[in-house]
Amino acid sequence: MMNLTSLNCCRVGFLHDTDLTLIAESFPMLQELDISYPEQGSSTGSSDRKPISDSGVLSLAMNLKSLRRINLSGNDFITDMSLLHLAKNCVLLTQVVIYECEFITHNGVAKLIRVCGHLNSVLFCGVGKPMIYRLGSLSLGCPWKSSKALCVVDFSDTVVPDELLCLVAEACFPMKKIVLSNCVDNDIFELSKSLGSITYINLSYCHRLTSVTLDTLVRNCRVLNVIIMVGTNAGAEALETDVVPNLGVKILNLSQNRLMGNGVIANYVSVFPNLEMLNLSDCVNITEDGIVEVLKRCSRIRHLEISRCGLIENLLIDFELPKLEVLCARGLIIDDDGLTIIGKRCPRLQKLDLSACMEVTAKGVKEVVAYCKEIREIKLRSCTKFSYDIIPWMLLSRPSLKTIVLPSASFRSLPNECQRKHIVHEGVLVCDD
Question: Residue 139 burial (CB < 10 Å; 0-12/13-18/19+)?
């Protein structure tokens, strides 16, 4: 056991500083350690056994010289000092995860990144919340001179000071993935100048971001593969006409951008001709005409999500979508005629989610199963007009079908108790929602 290299103590009940000392002494070769979210119930032991603190982290850091990855999330009483202990003593450290640690500030985060020369991944969520973060300039002490391996930064649900963003930009890390929150267009513009190697960016719920940011990413981040901008203010205006198409972006998630209409989304996707996955769920101003135009411009789409776009009824597609494999259309006003069109135009469809499509009946589902020879999964949650009588035909006529999720009412009407729990037909699971 002395040679143990990985230990997971996530949610271990009532973990204390003394336990961390014991871990460090018992397993000196540890490279990965997870002590996140300790269960701090009422103590049945000595009253001096208190939650994990900086002292416990210091004991770990001084004894685990081979430590490379650590997760400290949910330890409410550690401070920036814990990060400093790790930075100074664990010189091989490559990843630190700290979610929901109220007394960690951006000063601690910045110092950790500055001191750890091998650090390649930092994930901090909920750091520097307004009620805890001590306002003032970041006291970094000396210029950035290390961590040239840093390629993943996650500052989700975190109020990131402008000073920290500027320092990250100036350090020119070889960044591959970045997650930010509470940013504005100018923040992304300045940061993008040093993000030439970025392949993944998530700016979800940055409510003040507009189409300017999308324009910035297209122009300055030419090797991007994934753009996620859920719940932003994008969609009010189109991109500039002189934007050169970005051929690398395969995944675009613009769900919950409620200002976005047909013309704007057609303009956006024209910049990403190689899109394979597009999520426009909850974009309430987009109609079926907008989606049809998107599909015309992006013939390589394999995965499309248009759930809860209330203006979309049936997709009147008069061309084939040979690559579409996944369609999530929850809560649409789609009917059996619309399903027939989907079945005919999407021959390679494998997964179809029609949950809460209230006009769908067994007739439309039968058309999909008949035309889509590779269909593997159909979800019909809350489709109250669907009848279970068609299930035997579905299972027998389409061997590829492995999962059917039924509305509760239909499931309860299955003939016997065994079938209400599940039906297995050559590996097919038919289940309740």
Answer: exposed
Nearest to 298 by CA among 329, 319, 328: 319
Cα–Cα distance list, 301 to 63, 136, 250, 354 (Å) = 51, 47, 9, 19
| Tens-place pLDDT, residues 82-130 | 999 999 999 999 999 999 998 998 889 888 988 888 999 999 987 654 4
DSSP state of 248: S
CA 108 to chain centre: 26
Phi, psi of 73 (to 5 degrees): -55, 145
Q: Which of 109, 72, 107, 68 is nearest to 89 (CA)?
A: 68
Q: Which residues contact 112 (CB under 8 A, 6 or more apart)?
A: 83, 84, 86, 87, 96, 119, 122
* pLDDT value, residue 414: 55
Beta bridge partners of 70: 33, 96
The pTM of the full predicted model, rounded to 2 decimals, is 0.88
Report which of 56, 143, 145, 150 is spatially closest to residue 94, judged by C-alpha positions: 150
Q: Is the pLDDT of residue 44 over 80?
A: no
Nearest to 402 by CA among 362, 352, 341: 352
What is the per-residue pLDDT for 428?
Answer: 64
